[in-house]
Amino acid sequence: MSSSTSARPAAAQGRFDHRMAVFGSDDAFVATALPFLAEGLAAPDEPPPVAIAAPGNLAALRDALGTDAKDIGFVDHTDWYTGTAANAVAQGAGFLAANAGPGGRIHLLMEPDWAGRAGRSARESTEWIRYESLANLLFAPFATTALCAYDTRTAGPAVVDAARRAHPRTGVYEQPQVLVRELDALPLPPAPRSAVPLETPEGVRDWAAGRGLAAADAELFTRAVTAAAEAHGPVIEFLVWGDAPGCVCELRLCRAVADPLAGFVPPAGGDLAPGQGLWFTRQVCAYVDVRDGVLGDGGRIRVQYA
To answer: Which of 158, 184, 210 is the last residue of a domain?
Structure first.
């Protein structure tokens, strides 16, 4: 399959240019990557472009570039995408702050690890499509040009089709508020009958330790639950279940969480601290699901540690 998007004129200052390419072979990847990287090298006020991709795709690109490879940054995507989709937001924001040109100017060729964490389950893939969609809002203030690469050998048709809805100029693009709300409408499995109700987040620590979490992990999990409660409470009830490492706490709220960006906007300074609400929760937990209330009133935040 040939690429669906290739080089375009450089993004206007202060406008995130979020592109998508689909390919199914090393040759097609190289045919997509070369003009994009050349565009980055020719762009004024920009540092060298960076390719973040699977090792095999990077090797094919290096071979095609030859001695010109010295002008490009190369990052194994398993080194870039090291955790959750929320962690990827933090990684991207930190990288732009440290390495981009004025206004965030840089060309980034980016391939999520669909053969790894991002593609290991439908739930994980949904998290990454949410990240792709929210990137249009999160990085809108930056003049960054990102080309998201989708290899059909690792990202299946369902993932590619969903990703098209998260990228402008694909013909099927949905505004992030619409797509994320749709993803968040998918029902969660009901809490098991064995779930234990707690009145305060402090009880999570002893409960989690009793379910097998190490003391440090139980403390971190409790801090993550507390951060979510402080940002979106009052909380009617804390419902806990599961065993280590996948301990779960569901916060049942008096009011819904209306902001689709809740917990995705990096705090000023970038340091990770408990007082950052759902951002802290998303950074330390494997899953954070936000839903409307069970009966349509209030809201729910379901947090799973690992």
So the answer is: 184
302: which DSSP letter? E
Give yes or no: residues 28 and 123 share one domain: yes
| CATH number of domain containing 69 | 3.40.50
What's the pTM value of the predicted model, to 2 decimals? 0.87
Is residue 247 within 8 A of residue 280, CB to CB? The reply is no
As beta bridge partners, residue 197 has 239
21: nearest Cα among 36, 39, 11: 36
In angstroms, the first-to-last Cα distance of the chain is: 36
User: Is there a domain that residue 1 lies in?
Assistant: no
Q: Are residues 218 and 136 in the same domain?
A: no
Task: Quote the domain boundaries for residue 95.
Answer: 17-184
Residue 286 lies in a domain: yes
Name the domain count of the chain: 2
DSSP state of 298: S
Q: Residue 79 is encoded by which pair of tokens? A: 């080194």
| Contact (CB, 8 A) for 46 and 11 | no
| 133 and 148 Cβ atoms separated by less than 8 Å | no
Give the pLDDT means over successive 10-residue stretches in the chain (306 positions).
Answer: 37 77 96 98 96 97 97 96 91 94 97 89 91 95 97 94 97 95 89 96 97 98 96 95 98 91 82 83 94 79 96
CA R_g for the chain: 21
Please, which residues have CB within 8 angstroms of residue 33's CB and are 6 or more apart in sequence?
51, 53, 57, 61, 109, 147, 149
The answer to whether the CB of 293 falls within 8 A of the CB of 256 is yes
